[in-house]
């Protein structure tokens, strides 16, 4: 029943705007604005880091403004793709490995059943009100990244242009596809 409640909550969010705090595997803390538009689109706009992360419906692109590099990954290769699906059904799409509810917090941990080596994601929800507050990703190398959300504004109108990535200038950038 808890997983079905998570599915219903996530399926009712068509767009989301929030502040985020990210703790990288090396302990570096970054903050910024997070935007989600389902299906398939997200944007992490960092306050001070020279990074822009955008999912455009097919790819997750990490643009380093300082180095002028683009790294591109298939959305399906990332654990965060669970939040981007048009119809979220955790038990259909993922292997839910743990569900814990305590202290007003619900935690749901899952892996991709066909590619568990990609890592896992734990979605963390507050109970009152029931909201997505954090996710923790353990990647294929065993490195942990935590993203905490605050000031959530669900189902707001977002400009579709914010999910477009600036195109690299000829001769100034490199694009790597993973």
Write the layout of secondary structure elements.
Layout: H1 2-11, E1 15-23, E2 29-37, E3 41-46, E4 51-56, E5 59-64, E6 69-74, H2 90-93, E7 95-102, E8 105-111, E9 119-127, E10 130-139, E11 144-154, E12 174-177
Parallel strand pairs: 6-12
Antiparallel strand pairs: 1-2, 1-11, 2-3, 3-4, 4-5, 5-6, 7-8, 8-9, 9-10, 10-11
Q: How would you describe this protein?
A:
The structure is a single chain. The protein contains two helices and twelve strands, in the order αββββββαββββββ. It has 178 residues and is mainly beta. It has a twelve-stranded mixed sheet with strand order 7-8-9-10-11-1-2-3-4-5-6-12. Strand 1 (15-23) and strand 2 (29-37) form a beta hairpin. The N and C termini lie far apart (37 Å).
Query: Which class do the helix and strand fractions yield?
Result: mainly beta
End-to-end Cα distance, whole Å, is 37 Å
pLDDT < 50 runs, ≥5 residues:
none
Oligomer: single chain
| H and E order | HEEEEEEHEEEEEE
Q: What is the percentage of strand-forming residues?
A: over 45%
Entry keywords:
12-stranded mixed β-sheet; 8% helix; globular; 12 strands; mainly beta; 178 residues
Give a summary of the structure in a few sentences.
With 178 residues, this protein is mainly beta. It has helices spanning 2-11, 90-93, and strands at residues 15-23, 29-37, 41-46, 51-56, 59-64, 69-74, 95-102, 105-111, 119-127, 130-139, 144-154, 174-177.
């Amino acid at each position: 029943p808890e997983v079905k409640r998570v599915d219903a909550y996530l399926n009712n969010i068509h767009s989301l705007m929030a502040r985020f705090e990210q703790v990288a595997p090396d302990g570096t803390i970054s903050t910024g604005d997070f935007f989600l538009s389902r299906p398939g689109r997200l944007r992490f706009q960092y306050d001070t880091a020279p990074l822009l992360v955008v999912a455009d419906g097919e790819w997750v692109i990490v643009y380093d403004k300082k180095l002028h590099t683009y790294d591109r990954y298939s959305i399906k290769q990332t654990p965060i793709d669970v939040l981007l699906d048009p119809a979220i059904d955790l038990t259909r799409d993922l292997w839910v490995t743990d569900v814990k509810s305590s202290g007003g917090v619900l935690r749901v941990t899952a892996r991709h059943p066909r590619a568990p080596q990609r890592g896992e994601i734990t979605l963390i929800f507050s109970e009152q009100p029931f909201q997505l507050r954090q996710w923790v990703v353990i990647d294929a190398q065993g490195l942990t990244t935590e993203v905490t959300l605050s000031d959530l504004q669900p189902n707001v109108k977002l400009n579709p242009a914010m999910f477009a990535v600036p195109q690299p200038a000829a001769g100034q950038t490199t694009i790597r596809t993973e």
